């Protein structure tokens, strides 16, 4: 049996804005079928990295291969196989939830009828069927994330790239999303997500990388990272060097 | 094709979902009047072109007319920054759509940037088709010319959009572009010298230009050569358009607009400038004005219109003021400073008056939450607007003085007083409109008014009405032949303006409390897969 190429493989990835490197020589390999958490403090370069993986921001230097194909050279083939939960600004505010999910399906080449049927089923699965005719800009943050995830699933992708998918999602919604994602991984899909919610990452992910100042500072399986008795939070704080004691301000 | 259909369907749904809330009727009325006028022009063109008796006249005007079509199609959308509909590439690039398909849709959308010219050319084509003295095939000569313009418009738009995404050169590039608008007028007003210059620029006798080649083809002169030239132009434009489109697909606007960390010394000087309001006012008013000044100075759109006030404004009015008789002798020449000052008010008006919440749109939520009276927020915005208007008029005055325009204390006083009275009236109306018709505008990328049809219709009324008091002052000067009468009426106008402003302010504050939910919603909206 031939070995599957990595789902994500980046080498010496660099992205410079003005005179600041947002991502600075990042190298990373994510095996197919894994649930990968990409963590880091604010401004560490997570969103920039995921934007480069999605093809939204060309790297200053370095290479990206997704599912064995080079990005951006084979961008069209890659895009057909990935599902995205992007930044909220990439949603279409003046479409209804139903229209948006159907639109995304048609963008992935699904027949209009199929896209419509699947959008209805997905919205029901994500408990948005009651709000199907509401405009996206009338959705709450959590509902927007659920709509984005429903859209990401419509063409049954092999690789999911998700930027903060649980941000603003309530406990019930988050549970639902977690179950669906785990199911996808069981069926062989790969999930690459960024998140600030370490508890979620700890429960879901089998592999984790922590990025700080544009560089990977720790990478490994969840067990390796946590060590014998540590929580992911302890490992995270230690990795990014923010273990200082809380200082109080005189006036506070 | 499925994806193209899906994009058009999504845009159609976006429009349907959006417009019932945005007042489709006003937009439709304004649009209908405009396009009916152009349709009439197209019918007139068709009738003229269909009559064999007009062939001689047609030959005389064809090259020039086609050149004007080209200029309108390519330059006007850029100057007006109303580049029609275009794909929101950032939102669509994440999906697996071939670049060639996106390009085809983009080319189709380019039609919307200059529908007027398409109407005229179709009118001309129909006229030629109906003209018994002209072979039927000549109407087809216009097809490559239309394609040439379409492809070129795609390329130019993408090129300009990328240039404008660079913070450092955006304003300068756009300013140079708009300054070019004054050139033909300036050349023409200089008489024979200008006529010669225009001829030298566009050379109507040179067959190599696409408009000359099209005209020659219609007139059946050097058919093979003209056709080859025209097809070559259309092909070159297609290559250029596709190349620019592909480059834009992989363009990173965020990287282009990234700022460099400024030096400490420069930062210190700028910081002192921003802190100026604290020398005159107390907090929270000082903080509100300071925040407005900081924000507007950092807003590319505002910087551009501010620069235009004392550059483009001067250039565009100069030819009219000069006339053929010279600056000192023309009526516009003697009132040049006032005219340019008032014009600069119009340029600043969208930011300073009509949509004062639309640029820093997220701040409006804070204003409703902060323990500050909303009237103070509006006063803070108005005072910062007054500050910029004063700086603008001073800049206009300095440029006029540098150029040796006729200036004296009376003219200076006139310019500041007229602009001052007008400003107070416009601030009053603007406060009301900013609350009732708030709309989201991107201060970084938007270079068009973005005003809804209803607002545009209201502005047609507001400007003349707000100008009446200043007009009365000029009437008094003319009737009594006295500067005292002029300034006396202006002083009275100022008192009335302040009363009107106070009433409008109270009304705006009351409306803001009542409409805050819809206002916040309107300021939070964004566009669909096709932006206009």
Average pLDDT for all residues of chain A = 87
Distance between the termini of chain A: 64 Å
Number of DSSP strand runs of chain B: 2
Q: Ranges of chain B with pLDDT <50 over ≥5 residues? A: none
* End-to-end distance of chain B: 22 Å
- Please give the count of helices of chain B: 25
Number of helices of chain A: 9
Q: Biggest β-sheet of chain A: count, sense, barrel?
A: 6 strands, mixed
Strand order across the biggest sheet of chain A?
6-7-8-3-9-10
Helix content percent band of chain B: over 70%
* Overall SS class of chain A: alpha/beta
Describe the global form of chain B. globular
Sheet with most strands: strand arrangement of chain B: 1-2
Question: Care to count the β-strands of chain A?
Answer: 10
Determine the structural class of chain B based on helices, strands and strand pairing.
Answer: mainly alpha
Tell me the Rg of chain B in angstroms: 26 Å
Q: Strand percentage of chain B, roughly?
A: under 5%
Mean pLDDT of chain B comes to 79
Order of helices and strands of chain B: HHHEHHHHHHHHHHHHHHHHHHHHHHE
């Amino acid at each position: 049996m031939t070995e599957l190429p990595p789902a994500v493989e980046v080498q010496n990835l660099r992205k410079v804005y003005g005179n600041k490197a947002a991502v600075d020589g990042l190298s990373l390999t994510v095996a197919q079928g894994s649930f990968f958490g990409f963590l880091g403090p604010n401004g560490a370069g997570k969103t920039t990295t995921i934007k480069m993986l999605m093809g939204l921001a060309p790297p200053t230097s370095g290479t990206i291969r997704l599912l064995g194909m080079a990005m951006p050279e084979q961008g069209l083939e890659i895009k057909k196989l990935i599902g995205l939960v992007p930044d909220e600004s990439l949603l279409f505010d003046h479409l209804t939830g139903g229209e948006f999910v159907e639109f995304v399906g048609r963008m992935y080449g699904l027949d209009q009828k199929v896209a419509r049927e699947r959008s209805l089923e997905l919205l029901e699965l994500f408990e948005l069927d009651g709000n199907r005719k509401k405009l996206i800009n009338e959705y709450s943050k959590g509902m927007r994330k659920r709509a984005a995830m429903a859209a990401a699933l419509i063409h049954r992708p092999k690789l999911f790239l998700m930027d903060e998918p649980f941000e603003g999602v309530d406990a019930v919604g988050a549970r639902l999303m977690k179950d669906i994602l785990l199911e996808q991984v069981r069926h062989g899909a790969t999930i690459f997500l960024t998140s600030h919610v370490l508890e979620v990452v700890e429960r879901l992910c089998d592999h984790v990388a922590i990025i700080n100042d544009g560089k990977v500072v720790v990478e490994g399986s969840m067990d390796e990272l946590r060590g014998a008795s540590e929580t992911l939070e302890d490992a995270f704080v230690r990795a990014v060097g923010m273990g200082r004691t809380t200082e109080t301000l005189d006036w506070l | 094709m499925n994806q193209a259909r899906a994009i058009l369907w999504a845009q159609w749904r976006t429009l349907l979902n959006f417009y019932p809330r945005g007042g489709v009727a006003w937009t439709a009325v304004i649009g209908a009047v405009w396009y009916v006028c152009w349709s009439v022009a197209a019918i007139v063109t068709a009738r003229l072109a269909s009559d064999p008796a007009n062939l001689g006249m047609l030959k005389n005007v064809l090259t020039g007319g086609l050149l004007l079509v080209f200029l309108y199609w390519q330059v006007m959308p850029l100057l007006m920054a109303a580049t029609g509909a275009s794909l929101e590439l950032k939102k669509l690039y994440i999906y697996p759509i071939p670049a060639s398909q996106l390009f085809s849709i983009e080319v189709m959308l380019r039609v919307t940037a200059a529908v007027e010219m398409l109407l005229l050319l179709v009118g001309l084509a129909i006229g030629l088709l109906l003209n018994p003295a002209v072979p039927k095939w000549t109407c087809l000569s216009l097809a490559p010319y239309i394609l040439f313009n379409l492809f070129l418009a795609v390329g130019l738009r993408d090129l300009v959009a990328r240039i404008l995404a660079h913070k450092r050169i955006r304003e300068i590039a756009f300013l140079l572009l708009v300054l070019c608008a004054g050139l033909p007028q300036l050349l023409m007003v200089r008489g024979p010298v200008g006529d010669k210059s225009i001829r030298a620029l566009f050379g109507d006798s040179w067959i190599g230009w696409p408009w000359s080649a099209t005209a020659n083809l219609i007139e059946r002169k050097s058919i093979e050569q003209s056709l080859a030239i025209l097809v070559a132009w259309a092909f070159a434009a297609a290559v250029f358009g596709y190349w620019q489109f592909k480059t834009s697909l992989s363009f990173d606007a965020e990287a282009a607009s990234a700022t460099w960390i400024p030096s400490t010394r420069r930062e210190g000087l700028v910081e002192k400038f921003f802190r100026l309001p604290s020398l005159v006012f107390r907090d929270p008013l000082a903080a509100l004005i300071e925040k407005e000044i900081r924000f507007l100075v950092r807003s590319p759109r505002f910087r551009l219109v501010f620069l235009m006030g004392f550059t483009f404004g001067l250039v565009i009015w100069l030819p009219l003021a000069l006339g053929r008789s010279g600056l000192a002798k023309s009526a516009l020449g003697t009132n040049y400073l006032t005219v340019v000052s008032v014009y600069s008010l119009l340029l600043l008006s969208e930011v300073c008056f009509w949509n004062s919440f639309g640029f820093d749109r997220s701040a409006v939520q804070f204003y409703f939450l902060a323990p500050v009276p909303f009237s103070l927020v509006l006063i803070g915005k108005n005072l910062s607007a007054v500050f910029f208007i004063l700086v603008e008029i001073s800049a206009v005055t300095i440029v006029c003085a540098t150029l040796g325009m006729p200036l004296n204390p009376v003219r200076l006083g006139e310019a500041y007083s007229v602009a001052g009275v007008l400003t107070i009236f416009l601030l009053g109306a603007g406060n009301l409109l900013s609350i009732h018709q708030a709309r989201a505008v991107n201060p970084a990328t938007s270079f068009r008014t973005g005003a809804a049809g209803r607002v545009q219709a209201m502005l047609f009324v507001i400007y003349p009405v707000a100008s009446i008091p200043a007009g009365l002052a000029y009437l008094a000067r003319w009737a009594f032949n006295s500067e005292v009468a002029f300034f006396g009426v202006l002083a009275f106008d100022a008192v009335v303006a302040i009363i009107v402003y106070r009433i409008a302010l109270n009304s705006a504050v009351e409306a803001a409390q009542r409409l805050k939910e819809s206002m916040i919603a309107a300021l939070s909206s964004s566009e669909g897969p096709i932006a206009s």
